[in-house]
Sequence to fold (666 residues):
Amino acid sequence: MHAPLPPAAPLLTLERITKRFGPHTAVDGVSLDLAAGEVFCLLGPSGCGKSTLLRLVAGFEAPDAGAIRLDGADLTALPPHRRPVNMMFQSYALFPHMSVAANVGYGLKGLGLSRKQAAERIAGLMKLVRLEGFETRRPEKLSGGQRQRVALARALAREPKLLLLDEPLGALDRTLREETQGELRAIQRRLGTGFVVVTHDPEEAMALADRIGVMERGRLVQVGPARDLYERPASRFVAGLLGDVNLIEGRLGPDAPGGIRTVETALGAIRASGEGAAGAAVVVAVRPERLVVGGAEGLPGTLRGTLVEQTFLGDRIRARITMADGSVLRASAALPMAGPMPAVGAPVTVAIPADAARVLPA
Amino acid sequence: MSGRLARLFVRGLPLVWLVLFFLVPFAVTLKISFSSPATAQPPYLPVIDWQGGLEGWREFLEALDFQNYRMIAEDALYRDAALSSLGYAGLATAILALIGTPTAYAMARASARWQPILVALVIVPFWTSFLIRVYAWIAILKPEGLLNGALMKLGLIASPLPILDSPYGVLIGLTYAYLPFMVLPLYAVMSRLDPTLLEAAADLGAGRRRAFFTLTLPLALPGLAAGALLCFIPMVGEFIIPDLLGGSDTLMLGRVLWSEFFSNRDWPLASAVAVLLLILIVGPVVLFREAELRREEAAEGRGR
Fold:
């Protein structure tokens, strides 16, 4: 699943791209290399600049600074219709007055294909997205999932080296979304086209991407495979974006061999991995499922609290634990559990394994 | 209860309006068109005798005939006037479509700040009386007018062109006067066009030209059709523009109607011409509606 890192001969190179809208800097000095055939997800909340970055690559916006290169060729000054990239729009932007086949074939004009070749290309795409038999329909007569597939086929028709997908699954309902994620991934693997996917949904990013780039206020703050980002986030923002996390404020202890540091917190001393100057204000980030609740009495790093709430979620159970200083930790355990879960109101011990705790800048 | 009354009122009011101000006057006109001219007050016969009872009605109906329509059919003047009216209106509509489409397109693509200003500029001429604006064109088009003066100053022509009192004057006047009615419906449709459709076209390799002819224009066709009808219908019956800019030999039904009514005081014949005018106008509208329906049905059929 993981692509080689970093790409040896990049397909797409973004070099310190900056885009301003008036006083607002939408994209702020983003640099990025993408490997051929890679699926890269730009993840971030709305307004973080991820869609603008995609539109810059497509050519709908011109950067104020920086360069965009594809396969070594500079795209920065090219208008959208001359760029060898294609885009799948969030709204799909299907042409309402044209049939499905005419939509899919729209981009084939000017490629030098014969009538027969074009027809074959369209037929192949219809097969790829499983829409055979729908060629003569109008988009308005299709379901949401079918429209999404027409949009995908249309964007793939010119056989782009790079496909840009803006929230490709955003308009689909939940069950359809999961099914379509798998399909999208399968089509991408078959064609080997590079994908840049914009999404605000971390689950979608983790399901689709070889690598994820997290954007915050116009900056690309961390890039890596989903697992790296989840387990070793670089900031509280990234930690919180990819899933639920406990953040415990504290002060970093002295440097220690093996990279495991001690952080003095209001809960007690916590051992965690990470860097920083001794004495710096930091937060310790721990995923709820890595908290060990109950047992392990007296181990180093064991904290005390009271279980105040339990929520049964089918495949796991979620608990809230009030600590001695009044702060609340969230824990989560997979079901079925090995031992019994303590009852609500019972005093519990909470252990934080050193490899589960990350030191992050406060 | 009051809700139902309100609904009845809302639905009934347009109907009452149409009956009162369209159907009744049309019935009166139709009746007069079957009458004969007379030196009387009113200047036609027969007149309904409300006291005459059944016998009076019989006499009244027997006195009606198709004589005026026979006259229209036999006299080439009316046929020529009808054809020439349709010709002027059709040609002017085509010119309006050619000028109005790029104008509306430019307006729709202007920045959001400029669009209301441009719309206001299209509407501004309505603040001046229609008659005055057409009069102003006389000053522009006449032999020693602004246009000829400018063309001669530029050395493009040696002597003034006879634009005023010619078919060109009529076409220029029609085009000028009706342009807003073509531009506004087109602009309304084009400005509501989803801009991501044009981005998608560009993304798929289409330049601006291809995007315009494959997306903007086909999707703006309803606006073009509405604009064409809004212009064509009143232009067929236009009287002021051919009268002021077209010279005495310009044949248009509006002028024929006027002279039958005011110069010849032949109300029955004028009424018959008015009925003919209505048929000429209703014809294209019905044909257009039919074509629209067929197009929709075809789209539905293909969809199945």
The CA atoms of residues 81 and 252 of chain B lie 5 Å apart. The two ends of chain B are 43 Å apart (CA to CA). Chain B has 13 helices and two strands.
